Structure formats: structure tokens, C-alpha cells
Predict the structure.
Amino acid sequence: MPSTDAPAHEFVIADDSTPDLLAQCVNVRIAVFVDEQQFPLDTEIDKYDEPGKSTHVLLRLVQGLEPIGTIRIVHLSPTDKKLGRLCVLKPYRNFKFGKDLVLAAHDYIRKQAVTSNGEDGPRLSVSLHSQIYVKGFYAKCGYEEVGPEFDEDGAPHQRMIRYL
Ligand SMILES: CC(C)(COP(=O)(O)OP(=O)(O)OC[C@H]1O[C@@H](n2cnc3c(N)ncnc32)[C@H](O)[C@@H]1OP(=O)(O)O)[C@@H](O)C(=O)NCCC(=O)NCCS
């Protein structure tokens, strides 16, 4: 479905300074990964959800501010980021929201690097662990497979990487 059919939406940064928005991101994650995909809650919430470790992008509808998607950016180092917990509520899939969340995360990472390093910032490494069925999605977002498949939280995954 073309993105022009998508309901009016906005992307908002959520971190430790905005606990209400952060809780909305976590609730979307639980709806998708725990309720829909049946991953256990105690692996869904992990060490990267501890204060200071990550930033989320929240996707919400303009009308009513309903949260409908999110992605988590883990700050491994100033130049090394890890994306994860990307999810869009089922009724809102195939509107390009997933891809736009990845692009919003890239924008945030780039802007943060420019702010702290000036216009000619260093090369930024962005990695992720993709569920196997969604590798093609991440390939469309510019990610390349690195290394063999491995088990994570009881499901096969593939490490993928892109440089910004
Ligand atoms: C994965 C997910 C975020 C994709 O979001 P989405 O909004 O439905 O996807 P988009 O509309 O942005 O898709 C962008 C492109 O990727 C393609 N795509 C989407 N899902 C795909 C998949 N599983 N495999 C291959 N390609 C896929 C789309 O066809 C589209 O291609 P196009 O640009 O050529 O038209 C969504 O399906 C989801 O929330 N799934 C459940 C949670 C999950 O598994 N997350 C991934 C954890 S690793």
C-alpha cells in the first residue's frame, strides 16, 4: 500500500527524560513481541532498557496521539549504535512505517553525531539482530548480513550492519 494512504502520523524521540513516552514505546513492544509473537516478557525488557543505555523513536497517530510503533537505538559507543525492538502494531503494517522508523533512527543518530562532533563527524556503525523472516526488510533499509545465523531468545537471528 503506498505511504500516501497512511494515516497522519509523527515521530517523537523518547528517552529517560520523557518517561511517559518511553512507557508508550514499551507498551507497543509488549503488544507485538510478547502478546503477538509470544516472546517472554522477561527477555523483552533487557539490560539496554536500563537508564542511559538507549533512546527510542515513538511513532504515533496525530489524531488522538495513539502510539502505533517504535524502534530502540542502543548507544554502544558514540560511533557504534545498535537498532532493535522495531515494531508496528498489526493494523498499521505495510504503510512504510517500519522503514520510516529505521530512517528516523538514522536521522537521530546522524544529528547526535553532528552535534557532538561537528559537521565532519566520524563514520557511524549501526548494527542489528534481525529475525530471519524480516532480513529482506532490513536489506531494503541498506543493511548487509554479517556472520552466521545464531539463536537469540529462542529464535534464529542474523546480525546485519550498515554504515552512515
Ligand atoms: C517488521 C515490521 C516492523 C515492518 O513494518 P512495516 O511497516 O509493515 O513495513 P514497511 O511497510 O515499512 O516495509 C518496507 C519495505 O519492506 C518490505 N517488507 C516488510 N516486511 C518484510 C519482510 N518480513 N520481509 C521482506 N520484506 C519486507 C515491504 O514490502 C516494503 O517493501 P517496498 O519498499 O519494496 O514496498 C512489521 O512487520 C512488524 O512490526 N513486525 C513484527 C515485529 C518484528 O518482527 N520486528 C522485527 C524484529 S527483528
